[in-house]
Amino acid sequence: MADVPTHGKYIWLTKDSTNDMLMQTYYHNKAIFFIFAITISPSMKKIPKISYKVYPNTRLKPVWFHGRQQYPIYIVVVYNRTPTYFKSYYFDLLTHPKYAIHSVIGRKEPVIDDILKKEQELLEYLVEKYILDFEIERFKQEYFRLGRDLLFEIEESFQRYMATFFHDEGLPVFASLVSEGGKHTTSENILHDLKVVLKVDSFKKLMENAAFYAPPYVPLCAFIRSRQKTSIPLFSILDWESEGIQKEFRRFIISSYPNYDVELTENYLAKLVTSFC
Known about the structure:
The protein is of the alpha+beta class.
């Protein structure tokens, strides 16, 4: 692991009154360094020391990232001076062609800062949770479970619903366009264009039927957009399990998507989350 830079921005992020826990953050050359320290009672034999870094791995060959070469984003977790390296889940996810940002000036890559922010939130949570009971394999397992993006997990099923809808409506060309287009863009983008090209009644029927025959992609995506200002909507299991989020989502469904059954929607997402345990 590279030495922690001796200059940059230092921020105290947390302080726990029980354990007197402090965390320092260093920003340097678009990598994020985190050092955790904890003051514990003299009766405890060892003081746990955990640090991690999210960084572009320049030791590997650059990979294609939406039309340009980018060093893959990696994470190193150091526990009692023993480093463990693994690839960023969010970098792998956003490397997918469908996550190119579409605009009037063409396609462009997702913002790397969005990846770093999501990694920071996830790793900060895990280190605080396991600082007194750390096992690297459990840490990694929870990292890949809690980091899973729920919107991505229901994307393919929602696109299958749209393709089936157009087949049933006698529009097989639209069905093929959705199936092929879904490999290169998100359902959110597809719905945006369908709203423009379809007749009002046809688009309304597509959206109304989705409440009964599709996973809750539409309300979940809208809920994420109402809370986030990022270029790409991301909503992890950690986000879903955060305090108050499920109650907030319930209120959002009731007020903004009353045609969706709240209980069925919540049960669907609960089963999806459980499937990754």
